[in-house]
């Protein structure tokens, strides 16, 4: 069976140094079989369907040229109840500008062919680039266009979009030039970076303090790790998966105030040593004691993918990815090390699934697996899961 990793990154953004070498390009066009395929286009199917609000919005959005540019199209089509629940009534659609409707619809339309087989044979999710491109001025260091991506997967008998069940798998409709996947929510493009999401949540104030304190000490020591660039979002950094520890997680580990965090760093790792060769002759920049504790939450992966590979794709894992691919993702090697250069990079976590739900802990540590207290929050630069414990360091 093909490695699930081939579908985690669009073909044109694959990781050059990923240890899984059996990555192949995504299928393009429809597979050739001896069976007669569907005889109606998705346009013909949509015109006679019950999805009246989607059809009305599409007719007013003036997207004909964009849609005709692709020979095949995959559509995530919200039903009328979903449109109404999201405030997109027939009256609002009739009064909206084409630009407004285009922005709303574009995140639901992918100019590629994804049929049922393309998705259901892959454990986890397939990333699908949409027609949505937008400027992200004011978000981190973005200055150019950002392309929205949807992550589609089959889990049990459900279609999942970005980790959320949207409809029964059997509801999909095959067309001669694409596939229609009916869904039960109007999708929204992410509006916050990881940093903005952390800043907006009072329950993450200790994690916010941990990041800012360490960053200030790096700056004071003239050390540039790129941690804040990755978490604030930057087109030079890969999208990634972040496990955000709550204030309760810090309290369990004895950190109740930002002063506790500063004291932990100052007594264990300050002044911060400059980069040097370790015992294996890898060139390593030491971190603060707090970052040593927190890097496994996802930032070590982000920094490696961004700084060393300069790839804009990344490893974005929703909860169904973590559950369905638990053994493959555990201690997954992402990059080979090179003597007198950078060390190997791993996902420093182990995963397992219980009753279809993912659990996680730090690799090599005798620690109980931790459930996700919240999961699958999509942000501009990846996905955020929440945990109520810190990933302990190896003894």
Description:
Strand 7 and strand 8 (178-183) form a beta hairpin. This protein has 16 helices and 18 strands. Residues 6-29 have low confidence and may be disordered. A 4-stranded mixed β-sheet has the order 2-1-8-7. Strands 3-4-5-6 form a 4-stranded antiparallel β-sheet. A 3-stranded mixed β-sheet has the order 9-18-17. It has helices spanning 42-47, 52-60, 64-68, 80-85, 90-95, 98-106, 116-120, 194-199, 205-220, 227-232, 247-252, 258-269, 289-294, 299-309, 319-324, 326-329, and strands at residues 73-78, 109-110, 125-135, 145-155, 158-161, 164-168, 173-175, 178-183, 240-245, 276-277, 283-284, 333-335, 345-346, 349-354, 357-362, 370-371, 374-379, 382-387. With 395 residues, the chain is of the alpha+beta class. Helix 2 (52-60) packs across helix 6 (98-106) and helix 9 runs parallel beside helix 12 (258-269). It is elongated and about 70 Å long.
- Helix share, percent: 25-40%
Helical stretch count? 16
Structural class: alpha+beta
CA distance, first residue to last residue: 38 Å
Q: Mind telling me the C-alpha Rg?
A: 22 Å
Question: Largest sheet at a glance?
Answer: 4 strands, mixed
Oligomer: single chain
Q: Please give the number of β-strands.
A: 18
- Beta-strand share of residues: 15-25%
Tell me, briefly, the overall form.
Answer: elongated
Largest sheet, order of strands side by side? 2-1-8-7
Low-confidence stretches: 6-29
Mean pLDDT: 88
Summarize the structure.
This protein has 395 residues and is of the alpha+beta class. The chain contains 16 helices and 18 strands.
């Amino acid at each position: 069976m093909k490695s699930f990793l081939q579908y985690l990154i669009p073909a044109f953004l694959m990781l050059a140094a990923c240890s899984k070498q059996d990555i192949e390009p995504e299928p393009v066009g429809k597979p050739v079989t001896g069976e007669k395929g569907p005889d109606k286009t998705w346009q013909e199917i949509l015109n006679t369907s019950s999805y009246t609000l989607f059809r009305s919005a599409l007719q007013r959005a003036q997207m004909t040229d964009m849609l005709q540019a692709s020979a095949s199209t995959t559509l995530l089509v919200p039903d009328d109840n979903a449109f109404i629940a999201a405030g997109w009534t027939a009256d609002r659609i009739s009064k909206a500008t084409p630009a407004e409707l285009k922005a709303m619809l574009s995140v639901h339309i992918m100019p590629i062919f994804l049929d049922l087989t393309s998705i259901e044979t892959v454990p986890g999710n397939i990333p699908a680039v949409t027609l949505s491109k937008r400027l992200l001025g004011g978000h981190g260091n973005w200055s150019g266009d950002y392309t929205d991506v949807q992550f589609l997967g089959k889990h049990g008998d459900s279609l999942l979009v970005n980790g959320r069940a949207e409809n029964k798998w059997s509801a999909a409709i095959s067309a001669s030039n694409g596939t229609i996947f009916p869904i039960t929510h109007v999708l929204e493009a992410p509006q916050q970076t990881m940093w903005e999401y952390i800043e907006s949540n009072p329950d993450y104030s200790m994690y916010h303090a941990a990041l800012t304190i360490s960053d200030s000490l790096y700056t004071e020591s003239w050390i540039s790790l790129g941690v804040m660039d990755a978490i604030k979002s930057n087109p030079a950094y890969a999208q990634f998966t972040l496990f955000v520890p709550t204030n309760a997680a810090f309290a369990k580990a004895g950190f109740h105030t930002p002063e506790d965090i500063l004291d932990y760093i100052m007594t264990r790792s300050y002044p911060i040593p400059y980069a040097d060769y370790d015992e294996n002759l890898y060139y390593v920049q030491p971190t603060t004691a707090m970052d040593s504790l927190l890097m496994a939450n996802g930032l070590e992966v982000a920094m490696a993918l961004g700084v060393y590979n300069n790839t804009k794709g990344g490893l974005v894992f929703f909860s169904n990815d973590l559950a369905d691919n638990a053994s493959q993702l555990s201690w997954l090697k992402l990059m080979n090390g090179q003597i007198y250069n950078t060390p190997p990079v791993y996902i420093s976590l182990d995963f397992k699934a219980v009753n279809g739900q993912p659990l996680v802990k730090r690799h090599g540590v005798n620690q109980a697996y931790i459930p996700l207290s919240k999961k699958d929050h999509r942000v501009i630069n990846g996905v955020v899961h929440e945990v109520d414990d810190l990933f302990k360091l190896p003894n």
